[in-house]
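Please describe the entry underneath.
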Amino acid sequence: MHFASDNAGPVHPRVMAALAAANEGYALAYGAEPAMADLTARIREIFEAPEATVHLVAIGTAANALLLATLAQPWQTVFCSDVAHIHEDECGAPEFFTGGSKLTLVPSTDGKMTPEALRATIGAEESRGVHGPQRGPVSITNVTERGTLYALDEIAALCAVARDFGLPVHLDGARFANALVALNCSPADLTWRAGVDALSFGGTKNGLMAVEAAILFDPARAQEFEYRRKRGAQLFSKHRYLSAQMGAYLQDALWLALARDANAAASRLRDGLAAIPGVTLLADYRANMTFAAWPRAAHRQLLEAGASYYLWDGTLEDGPEDAPLTARLVCDWSADPADTDRFLGLLRDAMALGNVTKL
């Protein structure tokens, strides 16, 4: 009953096989291996972007921070939602790698910025001359950190606001595949056609061991990214192990199949949660992350029974037993329907029994 994070799931067997195959013999280092050239061509084909540049790093924070450093000057500010991963979960990495660019937070609802809120927030900057930060890139996350999705027209509307101010747009796509299959659109439509300049193309949350692709749709920015990646200790000498993972990910559309499996597992979980009296889903979810609330006593019983997920507000120790607490539940590609059904059965029993009997 593992719903804590899609980071906690296993690496897909085809990816492990690709790593074993890449381990045979010798290959040129630092991205000069033939597999990297093949991978770049494949990503350009998938995104219908023949001039896009592709750079591999090991983790999503590196992809986000290095891309934003390439898009922003140190005296600028990056506009992002008030719950963005770059704000809440990257320990100041964007500020560090940009050389000092601050983050300006845009109010959000269920993790999503509106064009109106973004326009007002951007408009409020560059109001203090040399004493304040200058306007810099806009960073959008899809799937958002609250499990919701930006539809194509919503992404395009945010990008249009950025364009009105002459600002580039970065898309944090740690769960890009999950968003893509949920929206049933093309990678190009969800990125550069909508106005996105740079994409953190996630893989680690969707069946890879440790690799993300930083994609720049404007090749003029590529050389700077190369310098920043090297300086940021993300240019791997044995780079073939990164390209092997990403190559297997894209082979025969495995990346989309894994995302569909994760989304389907989350849909099964949500359907079950919605059918239990006293359980509340907090928003409209279509990808692989769900936030739901139920009483503290039921949380205690589930966690003591071996369920794994994050409490998003409050603790088990402090407060009334019937007080609702929010859970964040994330499904990965390997989620077992039997575990989901067991989790739902335990929750259903806990809700029926109240706080009297422990499971």
